[in-house]
Amino acid sequence: MAVTSLVPNLPARDPLALARFYEAVFGLKVDFDMGWIAFLGIPGATGTRLQLAAEGGSGTDLPAISIGVDDLDVTLERLKATGHQPVYGPVTEPWGVRRFYLRDPEGNLVNVVTHD
Q1: Residue 73 — φ and ψ, nearest 5°?
Q2: What's the burial of 78, exposed, middle or buried (CB within 10 Å: 0-12/13-18/19+)?
Q3: What is the per-residue pLDDT across 25-60, written as a single tens digit (0 to 9) for each?
Q4: From CA 50, how far away is CA 2, in angstroms rounded?
Q5: What pTM did the predictor assign?
């Protein structure tokens, strides 16, 4: 037996509307939409990781998901363009990552991180 994928599920009253938020901020693409569920993908990328933790680090709440980006500043600008602000950071953490937290329109806590 081999695990072939890990896919986080975020709750959403309107999955396609929430998908549009993630498209606007992260450039993810809707691969499939059934009305009650929307699948988002990373264009041209593969690989998934499951993280298990008791807290988010630096005394923060545990986010529902962590999304790695190659340019935190551009992602922050894209977040602000949607009318949202980070709820933590941006900050460089003692373990060497730079990150911020956001709350998506459904209230899910998201860790946005880069490994400069």
Answers
A1: -65, -45
A2: middle
A3: 999 999 888 888 898 888 877 666 667 678 899 999
A4: 15
A5: 0.84
HSE-up of residue 10 (Cα within 13 Å, Cβ side)? 25
Instruction: Taking residues 104-116, report their average pLDDT.
Output: 92
* Residue of higher predicted confidence among 108 and 43: 108
Query: What distance lies between CA 51 and its chain's CA centroid?
Result: 13
DSSP-derived secondary structure for the chain:
------------SSHHHHHHHHHHHH--EEEEE-SS-EEEE-TT---------SS-STTPPPPSEEEE-S-HHHHHHHHHHTT---SEEEEE-TTS-EEEEEE-TT--EEEEEE--
Q: How far apart are CA 28 and CA 30, in angstroms?
A: 7
Token couple for 75: 């992602």
